[in-house]
Specification:
The protein has helices at residues 3-13, 18-26, 28-45, 49-74, 82-110, 123-130, 138-163, 169-199, 205-227, 231-241. It is an all-alpha fold. The chain is globular and about 50 Å long. The structure holds fe (ii) ion (2 copies). One fe (ii) ion is lined by residues 60, 63, 95, 98, 180.
Length: 251
């Protein structure tokens, strides 16, 4: 089977457990916030979007690095799961492709090459990824994949909607994000699939649950730093999740 056929088969056959479904439902307001944050940014700053691309490239590269860490550890794991291993390999392929597509667009329109080491990330970007690069944190990475790929999916979806049918640079962005949207949906499902492994016994579920919201909060903060502070979005976040993790006034 080709990579695309394998993904399709997985998406058609996988159904997440009740615990995961419930968690995903609880993240729904966060997904809506991601959409509205991105929508507002694109409505007001569509022509500045290109300047955010190096930060997006930096994220794509950071995800590649943490997936690589997963692959290294999974192959030594006593509970080695072949499908998970292969699918994370597919994710690596996707994220390197995202990096390539976005950095090519950036280079074509600015003349500058994006190299991850030359990008100075926002503080929240470093906070999101720092602990994921460390060894022995497979559960943290499973939580992060679950909590972040859904947000990435919704913001990619909105990007396609805002740039579709336009010309030049925006058309290129639209086409790149069409591919990214499709891939992020697969990563979101992969996040659910990977987290099942740790939720199966039920012993860690409260811990998983609270870390999912904590991680989604960090992710949301990262988007606020890349796309600009949005008071309405922060207020909505705090009213939905403030009892779990509060986003401060000065992000
Ligand atoms: Fe990506
Ligand atoms: Fe992804």
């Amino acid at each position: 089977l080709s990579s695309e056929e394998e993904k399709k088969q997985f998406l058609e056959s996988y159904d997440s457990s009740y615990f995961i479904k419930k968690l995903d439902e609880e993240l729904e307001p966060y997904y809506q916030l991601q959409k509205s944050l991105m929508k507002q940014y694109l409505e007001n700053h569509l022509n500045d979007f290109i300047h955010s691309l190096p930060y997006r490239c930096w994220n794509e590269n950071a995800v590649v690095d943490f997936c690589a860490r997963d692959l290294l550890e999974l192959s030594k794991d006593t509970t080695f799961e072949r499908d998970l291993y292969a699918f994370i390999g597919r994710q690596v392929e996707d994220e390197t492709k995202h990096f390539l597509m976005l950095s090519r667009i950036y280079e074509k329109h600015t003349g500058n090459v994006v190299r991850p080491r030359d990008v100075k990330p926002f503080k929240a970007q470093e906070e999101v990824f720092a602990q994921l690069f460390m060894g022995g944190e497979a559960i943290k990475r499973a939580i992060a994949r679950f909590a972040s790929e859904g947000g990435a999916y919704y913001s990619a979806l909105v990007t396609v909607e805002a740039t579709r049918g336009k010309s030049g640079l925006l058309d290129e962005i639209s086409r790149a994000y069409e591919t990214i949207t499709r891939d992020e949906f697969f990563h979101k499902k992969l996040g659910e699939f990977g987290l099942e492994k740790f939720a199966r016994s039920g012993d860690h579920n409260e811990e998983i649950r609270s870390q999912v919201f904590e991680y989604a909060g960090k992710q949301f903060k990262m988007y606020l730093q890349i796309y600009g502070y949005n008071k309405d979005a922060v207020d909505v976040w705090n009213s939905c999740y403030g009892d779990k993790i509060r986003i401060g006034d000065l992000v």
